[in-house]
Structure formats: structure tokens, C-alpha cells
């Protein structure tokens, strides 16, 4: 016997669980289906982000940063700790506990908001009168009927052609987060967000890390000035980053992994490593969705085709997050999930893709929103730029972390903020002010005239805004 709902959400990652909760808040009868399972066989909602992405990686980044501080920086604060050791299994266990707290938190939120949760795999069966039949298989089998369906099935790691993930020698983000010992030599293909974050974790813990990047420029999506500053910092830390490489054959053995590649000079090189992390992007996850049964349209990448409001080609079927176009970011998925729930309820929300922030949680952190200087030049738009270094910020000096800067780009005529780029301490938190300013179409002068607490890192943002008009006060 089937159960009927106003909204059925397939997937409980950031886009899915947020969409389900918001729809329930709006008075709709909601079900959410998710197949993630923890080590004990229980439900583990939260998707890639919570289970093998954003949350566990930040837990390991924090642990490894503490370890590095204890080894190299506590002494300058007058703190003596003697011999410092790392217990990797215990660190991984803490990471797992953090993940479970988030899993349990989502289950609690479902209960609080009266969302009916099904632990299993959701797929289309057929269109029926007034909606769609959805099958739930696995841990909690059921047949559901939904008037509206929101597909939020996320993405999966892209493997190298002909080189499958075994999560022992060839690792995706999943395997990279489950290592039980520090590899002596770690190779990473892809120097993007995941590669840099995972490389930072294991480099801090003692691994010799080499990142191989196919693009000739480092962090091509970031502002060029910020990317150059980041490259200098990572080089100083001991990360080896090779750009413009072409990866060839990858061989595994009992000893490790051998990666053959051609470097930027055209020379043939073989890199020997104990483990290889492949972080060359992600692909939309529609496996097992049975999309063809209802004629759900997908593009050449496998992403579900949607319009600007996340509507698919089928009436009453929506899709959000990594499984559709746009940046594969958890917070982008959340914004889309909320917007779709509100559209189903008859409201008229808006998601501004121009003010979605990007963050890389390395040390120094890197964050940006809006356009880069190279994008503005390519578009022929007249602009002004202002920068302020953390070296001149009192709070950064007190923290002992003065690497980096804040950079603000503003329209040359109107002074409207067009982009903000930060590299330095707490950039992930500082970028929120820039996002808010851009949402309200603030000018650099608006930020410059706003009182910022002293001493604080956020004063660097104020000073960068002053620098747009060439009138910094502390540099």
C-alpha cells in the first residue's frame, strides 16, 4: 500500500534535507529518502558533505592544524609541550564522531519538523495521476506517491579513465578521509579545493605531498593576485605543486603507486608514492534514479536539466544541488533547496548565483565572492581595486598569522562592490560580510564608512575598502 505526500525529496544532502525541512515548515506533507549508511548500519543523512566531504575534512584540517601548531608555533607563545605525537586512528575516530553528531542532528530536525524519513534508495517508477510513484528499496522499502518530487542526489568523485578507486591505494575523497596511518609519500592528482585541503592535512602530519595539476595556472578560478599569494604560502609550507602536467599510466603494486606523467617542460617523469588521491572533479549522481522511466531529461554530463528556478522538463519534478548546473557547493544546494520548497508553496524566492561564496579551508584560508580582476579585464569593465595586508592588522599579529590580504574590486564610476577576495586567517568567516554587502549592492564606501570592532580581522576588510579610494589608515 502506497503512502501519499505533497513533496518527496530524493537525497538528504545539504540541498535535500534543507528542502524537506523548509517544505514542512510551509505546511506541506513531506517525505525524504536517503540511502547513506553508517558503519553500524544505521541511517546517515547529510550526503557527501556530511559523510565524506565538508564536515569530516574540516575536522581533519582542524586536528592537523593543532598538531602543526603544537610542533612549530606553541613555543613562541611560551608554551612547552615536549615531544608531540599524532595518533591517527584516534584523530579519525574523532572525525567519525563529528560526522555522526551531524547525522543525528539531521534526523532530529526531521522529527522536529515532521518530515517522514525513509532510509533506503529512492527511484522513479512511473507517472501517476496527480504526481509520481517513487520506490524505496533497501533498509526501509516502501511505495510512495508524491505530488512534487525534488531530486537532490548529489555527485560522486570522478575517477581517472581506466583507474578505478579501490580506496586502498587509489583514493577518492572518501578513502583520503579514512587513512589510518600517515603515508610517507602521498601523490594527489588535482590541485583544486579537495586536493589542496587533503594535501594540507597529510602534509601537516608528516607526509611528503606532491600535487599534479593539469592546468598551467594555479587556482585558475580564483583572483590571480590571490592565487599567486596562495602558491607562495603553499610552497613555503612544503607542498610540491606541479602545474601543466599530463598524467599517463598509473600502476599499483604491493609497495604503492607509480604515476607516469609529462611535466610542463615535456619531460617524462614517474612519481612513486604510497597512496594516490584523485581529485579531478565530481560528476552528477543519477545512478539508480530510473530517470528514463519518466523521461527526466539529462545533459551530456549526466546532470539533470533545469531552468533558472530548478524546474525539470517534467511538471512537478525539481532538482537541486550537485546534480544540476552550477557550482558544486553545499551552500548553493541549500539555497536552491529552500527556493524550490518556497516555489512549491506558491512563494517567489530568488537565488543570486553572483553572490555565492567560494572557500578553500587550507592555511591560509582562501575565500572569494563575485568577479575576479581577470574577469573584469576580460569584460572590459572599468574598476578600482583596493588591498590591505594582514601584516598590518593588529589582531592578525596577535594571532601570529599575518599571511595574506583582503582585496576589494569596485566599479570605477558607481563604486559598487563587484568582487571581494581574501587569503588569510578566518577568510571563510570574513567573506560573509562581503556577500552581505554585495547582496545589498553596497559600495566600497559603504564598507569603509561602517564601524568595525578593534582589534579584529574584519578591520582588514574596512581598510581594503578604504584602499579602493587610496585612503587606508593603517598601511
Automatic annotation (TrEMBL):
Belongs to the class-I pyridine nucleotide-disulfide oxidoreductase family. This is Dihydrolipoyl dehydrogenase. Its EC number is 1.8.1.4. NAD(+) binds at residues 190-197, 213, 281. The keyword Cytoplasm applies. The active site is a redox-active disulfide bond. Residues 5-337 form the FAD/NAD(P)-binding domain. The active site is at 454 (proton acceptor). SUPFAM superfamilies: FAD/NAD(P)-binding domain, FAD/NAD-linked reductases, dimerisation (C-terminal) domain. Binds 1 FAD per subunit. It is found in: Cytoplasm. One of its GO terms (cellular component) is cytoplasm. Residues 356-465 form the Pyridine nucleotide-disulphide oxidoreductase dimerisation domain. GO terms for molecular function: dihydrolipoyl dehydrogenase (NADH) activity; flavin adenine dinucleotide binding. Disulfide bonds join 49-54. Keywords: Cytoplasm, FAD, Flavoprotein, NAD, Nucleotide-binding, Oxidoreductase, Redox-active center. FAD binds at residues 58, 122, 153-155, 322, 328-331. GO terms for biological process: 2-oxoglutarate metabolic process. It catalyses: N(6)-[(R)-dihydrolipoyl]-L-lysyl-[protein] + NAD(+) = N(6)-[(R)-lipoyl]-L-lysyl-[protein] + NADH + H(+). It comes from the Bacteria. It is an enzyme of class 1 (oxidoreductase). Its cofactor is FAD.
Amino acid at each position: 500500500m502506497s503512502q501519499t505526500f505533497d513533496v518527496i525529496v530524493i537525497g538528504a544532502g545539504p540541498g535535500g534535507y534543507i528542502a524537506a525541512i523548509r517544505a514542512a515548515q510551509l505546511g506541506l506533507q513531506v517525505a525524504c529518502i536517503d540511502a547513506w549508511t553508517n558503519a553500524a548500519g544505521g541511517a546517515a543523512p547529510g550526503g557527501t558533505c556530511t559523510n565524506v566531504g565538508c564536515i569530516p575534512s574540516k575536522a581533519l584540517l582542524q586536528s592537523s592544524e593543532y598538531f602543526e601548531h603544537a610542533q612549530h608555533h606553541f613555543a613562541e607563545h611560551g608554551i612547552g609541550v615536549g615531544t608531540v605525537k599524532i595518533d591517527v586512528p584516534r584523530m579519525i575516530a574523532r572525525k567519525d564522531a563529528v560526522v555522526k553528531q551531524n547525522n543525528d542532528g539531521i534526523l532530529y530536525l526531521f522529527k522536529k519538523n515532521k518530515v517522514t524519513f525513509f532510509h533506503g534508495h529512492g527511484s522513479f517508477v512511473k507517472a501517476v495521476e496527480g504526481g509520481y510513484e517513487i520506490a524505496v528499496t533497501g533498509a526501509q522499502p516502501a511505495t510512495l506517491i508524491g505530488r512534487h518530487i525534488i531530486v537532490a542526489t548529489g555527485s560522486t568523485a570522478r575517477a581517472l579513465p581506466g583507474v578505478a578507486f579501490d580506496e586502498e591505494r587509489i583514493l577518492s575523497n572518501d578513502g583520503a578521509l579514512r587513512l589510518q596511518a600517515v603515508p610517507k609519500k602521498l601523490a594527489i592528482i588535482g590541485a583544486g579545493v579537495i586536493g589542496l585541503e587533503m594535501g594540507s592535512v597529510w602534509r601537516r602530519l608528516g607526509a611528503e605531498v606532491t600535487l599534479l595539476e593539469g592546468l598551467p595556472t594555479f587556482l585558475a578560478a580564483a583572483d590571480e593576485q590571490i592565487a599567486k599569494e596562495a602558491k607562495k604560502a603553499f610552497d613555503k609550507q612544503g607542498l610540491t605543486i606541479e602545474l601543466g602536467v599530463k598524467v599517463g599510466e598509473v600502476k599499483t603494486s604491493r609497495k604503492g603507486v607509480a604515476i607516469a606523467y609529462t611535466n610542463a617542460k615535456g619531460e617524462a617523469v614517474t612519481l612513486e608514492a604510497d597512496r594516490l588521491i584523485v581529485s579531478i572533479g565530481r560528476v552528477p549522481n543519477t545512478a539508480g534514479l530510473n530517470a528514463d522511466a519518466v523521461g527526466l531529461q539529462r545533459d551530456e554530463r549526466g546532470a539533470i536539466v533545469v531552468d533558472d528556478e530548478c524546474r525539470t522538463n517534467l511538471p512537478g519534478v525539481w532538482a537541486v544541488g550537485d546534480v544540476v548546473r552550477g557550482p558544486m557547493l553545499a551552500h548553493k544546494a541549500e539555497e536552491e533547496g529552500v527556493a524550490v520548497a518556497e516555489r512549491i508553496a506558491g512563494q517567489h524566492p530568488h537565488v543570486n548565483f553572483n553572490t555565492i561564496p567560494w572557500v578553500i579551508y587550507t592555511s591560509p584560508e582562501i575565500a572569494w565572492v563575485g568577479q575576479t580582476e581577470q574577469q573584469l579585464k576580460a569584460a572590459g569593465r572599468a574598476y578600482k581595486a583596493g588591498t590591505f595586508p594582514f601584516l598590518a592588522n593588529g589582531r592578525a599579529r596577535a594571532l601570529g598569522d599575518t599571511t595574506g590580504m583582503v582585496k576589494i574590486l569596485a566599479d570605477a564610476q558607481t563604486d559598487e562592490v563587484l568582487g571581494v577576495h581574501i587569503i588569510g586567517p578566518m577568510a571563510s568567516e570574513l567573506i560573509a560580510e562581503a556577500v552581505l554587502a554585495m547582496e545589498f549592492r553596497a559600495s566600497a564606501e559603504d564598507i569603509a564608512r561602517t564601524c568595525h570592532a578593534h582589534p579584529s580581522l574584519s578591520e582588514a576588510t574596512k581598510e581594503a575598502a578604504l584602499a579602493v579610494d587610496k585612503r587606508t589608515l593603517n598601511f
